[in-house]
Amino acid sequence: MRLQLPLPIVVFESGGYGEIRDEMRARALGDVPATVDLPPVDLPALARAYGGHGTRACGPAAPARALTAAPDRAGSTLITVPEETP
């Protein structure tokens, strides 16, 4: 953000440690996921607070639109993509 480069940054949000949560659920031992869920963080707002741009890309076409628009902006763009977690 400090260098004001037209750089898109994509973050996939899973509400915490999604990969670990999914592995715990998939185990045959019957593990109950614990300490893997985190409170929501507004990452686009954080990016704006640091002088960049921030957006959420919800839906199948939204990430492509956000990535296409990012290089036209002065400064970095943080794009968050919510993951579907069963």
Report the radius of gyration as a whole number of Å. 16 Å
Strand order in the largest sheet: 1-3-2
Quaternary state of the chains: single chain
Determine the fraction of residues in helical runs and give it as a percent range: 25-40%
Overall form: elongated
CA-CA gap between termini: 34 Å
Order of helices and strands: EHHEHE
> Per DSSP, what share of the residues sits in E-state strands of 2 or more residues?
15-25%
**Number of helices, counting only DSSP H or I runs of 4 residues or more:** 3
- The average pLDDT value, as a whole number, equals 87
Judged by helices, strands and strand pairing, the structural class is alpha/beta
Structural overview:
The chain is built from three helices and three strands. By secondary structure, it is α/β, with parallel strands linked by helices.
Question: Topology of this protein?
Answer:
Layout: E1 8-13, H1 18-26, H2 43-49, E2 53-56, H3 62-69, E3 77-82
Parallel strand pairs: 1-3, 2-3
